[in-house]
Every structure is written in structure tokens, then in C-alpha cells.
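Troubleshooting entry. The earlier prediction with thymidine-5'-phosphate gave an output that would not parse, so I re-checked the input for stray whitespace and re-submitted. Clean input:
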Amino acid sequence: MLIAKEIKCPYCHVLTIAKDGNKSEGIQNQRCKNCRRQFIRDRGISDQGAFPWTASCGHPLPSFGTDSIGKEIEDRYEVAMIARNFVVFEGGDGSGTTTQIKLLRQRFERKKPEKQLPSLWTTCEPTDGAIGALIRSALRGGLALQAGTLARLFSADRSEHVFAQNGVIDRCNRGELVVSDRYVLSSLAYQGIGCGDALPKALNEEFPAPEMLFFFDIEPEIALKRMENRRIREIFEYLDFQVKVRERYKALLPWYEEKGTITITVDAAKTPDAVAEDVWKALKNASLLKTAYES
Ligand code: TMP
């Protein structure tokens, strides 16, 4: 039985009415309304009761914890882990994701005056933040790390990228189109080879899936040839590894489709301009751009 009683919120010390009577519900139930809200927000739900992911479409709920608040959130919100307005480019090394991001930015700059296009934010993982810098140093061989440590760093970097202020979720919620060069699937495809599937899957479980995912598919031999002249080489840039990466991407795509992400495989062996056209044709169907192109 729940009994209302007046207590001091243990977090901000304001007098509040708390639900009490069930000890196993723990201290979370004694927070005042504001601190409860903050608690909920910290777990990925924004404060107006709206949440960063799209409305219900029958996908499994993310885990918000096994305590009473976590359960309450799961009961109250039917949350599908799809971040609307979020688009991801994925592929093996040398598949051209970075070039395509650049071409997309240029297209937006050209078209914006003529069409009512949303703001575009292009971004990448690893990020250029502090954790991303550490990862880059490991990728260039300057820092020897266990495969599991690298997997943990990638997900820590992602956590900042996605949930920080002005990060992916913030911007998607503000109506910007966010396009990221690499995301969760990179961790599943690459880190899975070094430390098995379980750890990267567990570390990435709670990140929302993108609305759209482009997989830039190319024979690893051709991709590596494209990179021959690069001055800086990274630890994953060798043929055997890239062959495995490609196989793993292909096997993993259905995993995202099941979550409700629209996945598009692009023939990345074409010229950059031809690939950019293929990307644009599909991207015009993203929810934000559809409106601009239908009007
Ligand atoms: P790139 O962005 O220059 O392609 O380099 C990033 C490298 O990091 C690339 O080899 C893929 C790898 N990577 C992972 O192994 N796991 C990840 O989660 C991400 C985002 C990238």
C-alpha cells in the first residue's frame, strides 16, 4: 500500500510529498517532482514527458533500470529506440563515408536557398572530443589497448556524442538533420572481431537506432587501394580484417532493420558523384526532407 507523507527531498532538500510504504521501492520515490524529473532525464527521457525517440511502433523498450522509477518509465512510455532525423553512414575503411558527408554538406549549401531545407549537422565517430582523441591515438598505434578497452572507449565517446548538450539527440529534437560518419554498427562490426560480440552489444544496447542507415559497400581490395597514398595508417586497415568487417556489416544490417531503421546499401565502388546521387535519392525520403520535397 502506498502512503503519502511529507518529507524533505534528499537531493534538493525541498519539502515534498513522497510516496512511501514500500521499502523495496527505494529512495528514488522520495525525490521531489523536479529531482524525479531530472532522474528520468538522466536516463534519456526529456523533461516535458516527450522522449528523444519516435513514438510507439512496437519495438522493445530500452532498459531504464529495474527499480521502481525505471519500471514506471517503461509502463508510462512506449518508447521505440529510433532517433528520428538521425542518419548514419557506415562502411569499411576506404568506403568513402567521409567524402560522402562532405558532398552532402555541399549539396545542402547549394540547395538551401531554393528549398526549405532543415539545418544539417554533420558529425563523426570517433568524435573530436577528449575520448575521441584517445581513440585516434590508439587507432594510429600510439597507444596499445586491449580490444575490450577500445570497445569501452568507443561507447563512452558515443555516449557524449549522443546525449550531451547540443549532441545528436538534442539536435534531432530541435529539428536538425543529423548525419554521422559511423555509429553503433561500427562498434559491432569492428570490435566484435577483436573481443567477441557480447561486449560491444552490451555496451551499445541503450543507444537509439538511427532513422536511416547507409551502408557503403565495396570490395575491401578496392577500398584499401584507394587509401594507399594516405600518410597515416590505422590499425584496422589491412585486407584480412576488412574482409571480415564487410561480412559482419552485411550480417548485422538485418539487426537494425528489425529495430525499424531504414537501411540502404549503396554501391560504393562507383564514382563519388554517382554515389552521392544514390545517397540523395534515398535520403530525400527521410522524414524531415520529405516535407521539403513534397511541397
Ligand atoms: P574513419 O572514421 O577515419 O574511417 O576511422 C575510424 C576507424 O575507427 C575505422 O577504422 C573504424 C573504427 N571504428 C571502430 O572500430 N569502432 C567504432 O565504434 C567506430 C565509430 C569506429
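This one parsed fine. Residues 4-80 form one domain.
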